[in-house]
Design brief:
two-stranded antiparallel ribbon, 8 helices, about 15% strand, binds NADP nicotinamide-adenine-dinucleotide phosphate
Length: about 270
């Protein structure tokens, strides 16, 4: 897909992976709206991104109906339409299920699953008008191999992945492609409260590596972009062929992993 002049909305574009995708799209000539809840972070991000092209911001919570309305209406107004929706805003709370509050569980379901579904539904009429449009859903590698202590996050990210797969087929031949991105551990503010490192399989890559792969996927109109390299690919295959072998591996890692992700929270 040629991004020159494309009108792009990146939810959660003020930080991390969303910011890197916004920058990469701007460099290819797209016009971009970034969103987030914190006006200060948005202002700072937009200040840096303007070096690469035209950026507008929307401060709103996509986890609420009102926030989604404001997000889409403001983006359509600023861009005069929409060609690409990047559902990137997300949140996580790790830890044992019994130690996770109902509010934290509901926050993950709302922001990571309900928000992208409803925002996509609302954006579809505008996306159809362009005739060469794209929805990019940022899920997680955890949707393919669900690690312990991330049960709700794995559930909602896997839900988002299947939402995208079904919608891609529903929209086939109608001018709107749907691509699913599965980042591995990425060095962003979301990971600051996790102490899980390479010894536990969490090798972090920079957000720019994810956005480079996303751009490659956009070029090819790929179905999916899976990060984590060969090691991750082997794990995904093993999870299908012999899930008990992975259960054993996780059993050995469980005490250290439980401790390392106990405080991992970014909601
Ligand atoms: N980092 C990783 O290792 C990793 C791995 C796999 C998948 N992912 C996924 O990648 C996506 C981006 O994560 P990241 O690592 O780049 O995180 P990040 O650096 O913390 O950025 C998250 C962005 O989303 C925004 N956001 C969060 N909740 C929001 C809400 N309710 N409404 C509107 N904006 C909201 C944040 O801004 P405000 O805080 O101001 O709202 C920020 O701009 C997420 O969907 C995450 O699940 C990340």
């Amino acid at each position: 897909m040629d991004l020159q002049g494309k009108r792009v909305l990146v939810t959660g574009g003020s930080s991390g992976i969303g910011y890197a995708i916004a920058e990469a799209m701007l460099k290819r000539g797209a016009r971009v709206v970034i969103t987030g809840r914190r006006p200060g972070a948005l202002h700072e991000a937009a200040g840096k991104l303007r070096e690469f092209g035209a950026v507008e911001t929307v401060a709103a919570d996509v986890g609420t109906e009102e926030g989604r309305k404001v997000t889409l209406a403001s983006a359509l107004k600023a861009l005069g339409g929409l060609d690409i929706l990047v559902n990137n805003a997300g949140g996580v709370r790790a830890g044992r299920l019994e130690d996770t509050s109902e509010a934290e569980i509901r926050a993950m379901i709302e922001v990571d699953l309900v928000a992208p579904i409803l925002l996509t539904r609302a954006a579809l009429p505008a996306l159809r008008l362009g005739g060469d449009s794209l929805v990019v859903n940022i899920t997680s590698g955890i949707a393919l191999v669900a690690a312990p202590f991330y049960a709700t996050y794995a559930g909602v990210k896997a839900g988002l992945a299947k939402f995208g797969e079904s919608l891609r087929r529903e929209l086939k031949g109608e001018g709107v492609h749907v691509m699913t991105v599965y980042p591995g551990a990425t060095d962003t503010p979301m990971m600051r409260s996790s102490r899980a490192g390479p010894e536990l399989g969490f090798v972090r890559e920079p957000p720019g590596a994810v956005s480079d792969a996303v751009m490659d996927g956009v070029d090819k109109l790929a179905f999916e972009v899976v990060r984590g390299g060969e090691a991750r690919a082997k794990m995904i295959a093993l999870n299908r062929e012999d899930p008990a072998a992975l259960d054993k591996r996780f059993l050995d890692l469980k005490p250290a992993l439980a401790e390392a992700v106990r405080d991992h929270s970014a909601l």
